[in-house]
């Protein structure tokens, strides 16, 4: 059942929230040992929450638009009293004393948190192989990766462990696993969803967003969590137009641009490029005007990102020192304890990015590296602005290929980083983008098409995504 169908059935009393949760827990029990989508399955808490919702329905109280809907949360979102690990040993034993704002809003909408999902440690990765607790596996072929860093949430939705999932997207960490697993993944406009309670990787890039089985469920999930939050200083104050209300307006007369730098870049598989062309043809048939467009500076997006994001990570992760949070390795003095704790607690990829970021921020190199990367970021924003003067939305591949085998790229960081070549520019610009499943490629594995829109362009973006989805029906 879709999330909206579950909520409708629970709110009407046709189904109990408990039966919904029990059904999903049974599905988890059957396949979770194979797929490892979760770091923690919150079975008891979920059943208690379900009973509370059923009691509300029995008393004539509406529990909310997501009543009884099981939701899987990436394990970098704070959940009060529940272990939150970021898939890292450094946060061993830590239980947040508060809920993230997005979690609070999901619960207020009637959603039931069914578990905390696996991720690349501190969201640093593109395959969910960098978790301290072992990799997650693709639901269609467990020998392959599900993408990352929000791979566990993508698997949870694709394998029917949860009707909805939530992840964070710093450089493509929602959209890329959504494409590989064949689900919808949304990266909202920066500031549209509160980051309060999201454990930071790169604060100017991170954004929370939903995974869903279809575009409509994704729209409902997004509306449940977005909106201004005074606890997040980067939260957008202005109200955002409804995406659900815009879904069925169609694309007649809309201007759609295919980004040549993202579609023709080296490494894009021919089958992936073909699906983007097919989606563009479907939009033309639905009445849109489609053409190619150049966004020149996006070719430098990957280079800029891997200076800006590690620099911010170096600063954000300095707080994990063995004193205030989680793991502490005993040592003769504080300096040795701090060094030993960080060495034992952080994995190889996190250490790599901390060192890269610290170097980029160091005296004598700041202007040459970090400062130059920020100037490239400005160029990307300007080039997107020019493109959006001509087009309402843009199209590109989401991921360059279908899901690759576990271990295929883990020894080659650059090859792994290239998995996000199509998604990173949107994060640098602060705009919205989403991945829509659009057919399959090699080995029958899913391919996603990316729809991009300017800041606060979610209603238009969702209209196009719904039209692409409908063309497959």
Quick rundown:
The chain has helices spanning 3-12, 17-35, 43-58, 101-108, 151-158, 175-181, 215-225, 260-263, 270-285, 301-316, 334-345, 348-361, 367-390, 413-417, 424-429, 458-470; strands at 38-41, 70-74, 112-117, 164-168, 184-187, 208-212, 255-259, 289-293, 393-397, 432-440, 446-453. By secondary structure, the chain is of the alpha/beta class.
What does this structure look like?
- The chain is 40% helix and 13% strand.
- It contains 16 helices and 11 strands.
- Strand 10 (432-440) and strand 11 form a beta hairpin.
- By secondary structure, it is α/β, with parallel strands linked by helices.
- The protein has helices at 3-12, 17-35, 43-58, 101-108, 151-158, 175-181, 215-225, 260-263, 270-285, 301-316, 334-345, 348-361, 367-390, 413-417, 424-429, 458-470; strands at residues 38-41, 70-74, 112-117, 164-168, 184-187, 208-212, 255-259, 289-293, 393-397, 432-440, 446-453.
- The model has no long low-confidence stretch (mean pLDDT 97).
- The chain is globular and about 70 Å long.
- The chain has an 11-stranded mixed β-sheet, sandwiched between helices.
Search tags:
single chain; eleven-stranded mixed β-sheet; 11 strands
The H-and-E topology, N to C, reads as: HHEHEHEHEHEEHEHHEHHHHEHHEEH
Q: Mean of the pLDDT scores? A: 97
N- to C-terminal distance: 17 Å
Beta-strand residue percentage: 5-15%
Task: Bin the helical content.
Answer: 25-40%
Spatial sequence of strands, sheet with the most strands: 1-3-2-4-6-5-10-11-9-7-8
Alpha-carbon Rg, integer: 21 Å
Reported for the largest beta sheet, the result is: 11 strands, mixed
Total number of helices: 16
Helices and strands: which structural class? Answer: alpha/beta
Give the total of beta strands: 11
**Overall 3D form:** globular
Spans of at least 5 consecutive residues whose pLDDT stays below 50 are none
């Amino acid at each position: 059942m879709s999330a909206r169908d579950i909520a409708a059935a629970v709110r009407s009393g046709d189904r109990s929230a408990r039966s919904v949760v029990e059904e999903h827990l049974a599905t988890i029990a059957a396949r979770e040992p194979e797929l490892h989508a979760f770091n923690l399955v919150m079975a008891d808490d979920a059943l208690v929450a379900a009973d509370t919702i059923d009691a509300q329905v029995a008393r004539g109280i509406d529990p909310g638009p997501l009543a009884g809907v099981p939701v899987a949360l990436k394990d970098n979102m704070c959940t009060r009293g529940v272990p939150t690990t970021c898939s890292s040993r450094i946060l061993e034993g830590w239980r947040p004393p508060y809920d993230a704002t997005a979690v609070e809003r999901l619960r207020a909408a009637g959603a039931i948190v069914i578990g905390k999902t696996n991720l690349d440690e501190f969201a640093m990765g593109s395959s969910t192989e960098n978790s301290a607790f072992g990799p997650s596996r693709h639901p269609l072929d467990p020998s392959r990766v599900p993408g990352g860093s929000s791979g566990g949430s993508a698997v949870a939705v694709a394998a029917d462990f949860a009707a909805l999932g939530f992840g964070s997207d710093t450089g493509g960490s929602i959209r890329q696993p959504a494409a590989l697993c064949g689900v919808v993944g949304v990266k909202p406009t920066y500031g549209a969803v509160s980051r309060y309670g999201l454990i930071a990787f790169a604060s100017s890039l991170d954004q929370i967003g939903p995974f869903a089985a279809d575009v409509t469920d994704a729209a409902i999930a997004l509306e449940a969590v977005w909106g201004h939050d005074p606890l997040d200083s980067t939260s957008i104050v202005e109200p955002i137009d409804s995406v659900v209300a815009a879904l069925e307006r169609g694309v007649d007369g809309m201007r759609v641009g295919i980004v040549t730098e993202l579609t023709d870049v080296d490494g894009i598989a021919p089958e992936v490029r073909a699906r983007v062309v097919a989606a563009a043809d479907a939009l033309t048939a639905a009445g849109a005007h489609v053409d190619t467009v150049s966004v020149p500076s996006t070719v430098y997006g990957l280079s800029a990102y891997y200076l800006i994001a590690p620099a911010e990570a170096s600063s954000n992760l300095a707080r994990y020192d063995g004193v205030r949070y989680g793991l502490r390795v005993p040592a003769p003095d504080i300096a040795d304890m701090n060094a030993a704790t960080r060495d034992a607690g952080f994995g190889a990829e996190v250490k790599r990015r901390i060192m890269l970021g610290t170097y980029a921020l160091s005296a004598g190199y700041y202007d040459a590296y970090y400062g130059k990367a920020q100037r490239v970021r400005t160029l990307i924003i300007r080039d997107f602005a020019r493109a959006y003067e001509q087009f309402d939305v843009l199209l590109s591949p989401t991921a360059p290929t279908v899901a690759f085998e576990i271990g295929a790229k883990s020894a080659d960081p650059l090859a792994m980083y290239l998995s996000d070549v199509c998604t990173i520019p949107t994060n640098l610009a602060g705009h919205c983008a989403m991945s829509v499943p659009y057919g399959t490629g090699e080995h029958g594995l899913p391919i996603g098409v990316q729809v991009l829109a300017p800041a606060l362009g979610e209603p238009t973006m969702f209209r196009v995504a719904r039209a692409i989805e409908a063309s497959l029906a």
